[in-house]
């Protein structure tokens, strides 16, 4: 029974962490900070999957959720800000 | 504890939806969509969990009589994660395209542009 | 729709959805209970085909056709991304230099980690039927390992080590291989995606019939897909810029190319 309580606590803690992590991702309004938070959130999900005895899922979550998707998000943010910077440069030239 | 895992999964999904609705940046919107989708992972894995169950990898100590957690929902979640990555990348490619066209990625301003 | 109305609609929707979910949860079986009908059937089927990893057995043996559909989703999404992000005629490609201030230790770590990741990925794919892992995980790990070179600040090395054409072929080949294995099941056995090869002994390296072959096919597709995907985004973020009147000057925001990738 002792083990039961321990696993209960573990599950409850990791579930709460996931919920808090999701809130953190959603309420981080700055996109490039959000990519970092998203990566940590992926890690929290991985911990939850390990606790709930799903090693296969944890493995793919750690590879996709903490590495590939945040990397794509970072690259998109960089591209978007490059487009805007180009645009501002152009506007400045046309203005003068 | 009885239904806490299910509440967490719905909570994660609703947080994602709220993020989508209040977002001011399309990249942020796409990330919120992926958060909303991650609620389904939690729900699926929680449905298949069993106290005392071990991971569904047989051999060694784990035989056909050992209680294991549900492998069906784990296979579904695996599929879910890969599809989520595909959807996210597709949407981000579209966001880049929108940024090239309109120079704005605030959904509110885009709405006026499309008029 | 103004922002105010949208927030009101959102509030009503969340309230209604929460109420419906609360109602649904009261009728659901208890969390962590021991009644899992699908589990019992899937475990029996997994044992019947001597596949140690039940998740792999479900993905590639019992529900092979679904996984084929899912692979097609991935394939189409990557083709879509590559089509959307290809350079158009008003854009030019600039040279990306990778001279920069990457820490020596980071560079060294990358060179140590890169071969390790490749070995790990191959191992994960090969033992997909026996231990946790399989084609999906191994494929993603392999492609992540290849992109460690970018974190190490060697974008040019990454471009050399990553013949993109091969990966584009590899992606298609993986999907075709997966389909061919499925049709082989129909030709040699009873049904599409049937497990027709003798299954051997549970937990042996060579066991579980066609499952390891499917793992290899999926690993190929997933690895190539992620490489093509990241290549499209990397190109857009680093190399492709809109054509401008005097766009040949050095980029004013010089030096973000070697930035760390997180």
TrEMBL record, chain A:
It holds the Pfam family MbhD. It is found in: Cell membrane. The chain crosses the membrane at residues 6-28, 35-52, 58-77. Residues 17-80 form the MrpA C-terminal/MbhD domain. The keyword Transmembrane helix applies. Keywords: Cell membrane, Membrane, Transmembrane, Transmembrane helix. It comes from the Bacteria. It is a multi-pass membrane protein. This is DUF4040 domain-containing protein.
UniProtKB/TrEMBL annotation, chain B:
The chain crosses the membrane at residues 6-27, 39-58, 78-99. It is a multi-pass membrane protein. It is found in: Cell membrane. Gene3D superfamilies: 1.10.287.3510. InterPro entries: CPA3_antiporter_subunitC, NUOK/Mnh_C1-like. Keywords: Cell membrane, Membrane, Transmembrane, Transmembrane helix. Belongs to the CPA3 antiporters (TC 2.A.63) subunit C family. This is Sodium:proton antiporter.
From TrEMBL, chain C:
InterPro entries: CPA3_antiporter_subunitB, MnhB. Residues 109-227 form the Na+/H+ antiporter MnhB subunit-related protein domain. The chain crosses the membrane at residues 7-28, 72-88, 108-129, 135-152, 172-193, 213-234. Its main location: membrane. The keyword Cell membrane applies. It is found in: Cell membrane. Keywords: Cell membrane, Membrane, Transmembrane, Transmembrane helix. It is a multi-pass membrane protein. It comes from the Bacteria. Pfam families: MnhB (PF04039). Belongs to the CPA3 antiporters (TC 2.A.63) subunit B family. This is MnhB domain-containing protein.
């Amino acid at each position: 029974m002792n083990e039961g309580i321990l696993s209960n606590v573990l599950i409850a803690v990791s579930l709460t962490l996931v919920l808090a992590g999701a809130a953190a991702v959603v309420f981080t309004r700055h996109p490039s900070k959000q990519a970092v938070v998203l990566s940590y959130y992926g890690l929290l999900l991985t911990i939850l999957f390990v606790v709930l005895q799903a090693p296969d899922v944890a493995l793919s979550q750690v590879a996709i959720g903490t590495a590939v998707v945040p990397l794509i998000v970072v690259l998109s943010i960089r591209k978007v800000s490059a487009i805007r910077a180009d645009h501002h440069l152009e506007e400045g030239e046309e203005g003068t | 504890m009885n239904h806490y895992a299910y509440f967490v999964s719905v909570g994660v999904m609703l947080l994602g939806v709220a993020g989508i609705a209040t977002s001011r940046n399309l990249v942020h919107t796409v990330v919120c969509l992926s958060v909303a989708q991650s609620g389904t992972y939690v729900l699926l894995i929680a449905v298949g969990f069993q106290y005392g169950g071990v991971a569904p990898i047989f051999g060694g100590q784990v035989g056909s009589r050992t209680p294991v957690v549900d492998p069906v929902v784990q296979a579904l979640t695996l599929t879910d994660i890969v599809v989520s990555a595909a959807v996210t990348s597709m949407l981000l490619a579209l966001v880049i395209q929108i940024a090239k066209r309109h120079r704005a990625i605030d959904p509110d301003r885009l709405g006026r542009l499309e008029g | 729709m103004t922002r105010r109305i949208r927030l009101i609609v959102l509030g009503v929707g969340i309230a209604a959805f929460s109420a419906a979910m609360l109602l649904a949860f009261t009728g659901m079986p208890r969390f962590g209970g021991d009644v899992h009908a699908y589990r019992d059937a899937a475990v029996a089927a997994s044992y019947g085909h001597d596949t140690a990893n039940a998740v792999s057995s479900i993905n590639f043996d019992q529900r092979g056709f679904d996984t084929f559909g899912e692979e097609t989703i991935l394939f189409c999404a990557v083709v879509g991304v590559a089509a959307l992000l290809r350079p158009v005629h008003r854009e030019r490609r600039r040279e990306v230099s990778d001279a920069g201030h990457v820490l020596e230790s980071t560079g060294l770590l990358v060179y140590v980690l890169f071969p390790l990741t490749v070995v790990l990925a191959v191992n994960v794919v090969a033992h997909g039927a026996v231990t946790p892992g399989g084609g999906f995980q191994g494929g993603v790990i392999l492609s992540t390992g290849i992109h460690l070179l970018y974190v190490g600040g060697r974008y040019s090395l990454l471009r050399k080590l990553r013949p993109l054409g091969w990966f584009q072929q590899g992606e298609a080949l993986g999907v075709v291989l997966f389909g061919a294995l499925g049709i082989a099941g129909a030709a040699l056995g009873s049904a599409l995606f049937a497990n027709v090869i003798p299954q051997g002994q549970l937990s042996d390296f060579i066991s579980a019939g066609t499952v390891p072959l499917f793992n290899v096919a999926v690993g190929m597709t997933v690895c190539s897909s992620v490489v093509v995907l990241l290549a499209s985004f990397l190109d857009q973020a680093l190399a492709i810029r809109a054509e401008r009147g005097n766009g040949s000057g050095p980029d004013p925001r010089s030096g973000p190319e070697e930035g760390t990738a997180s």
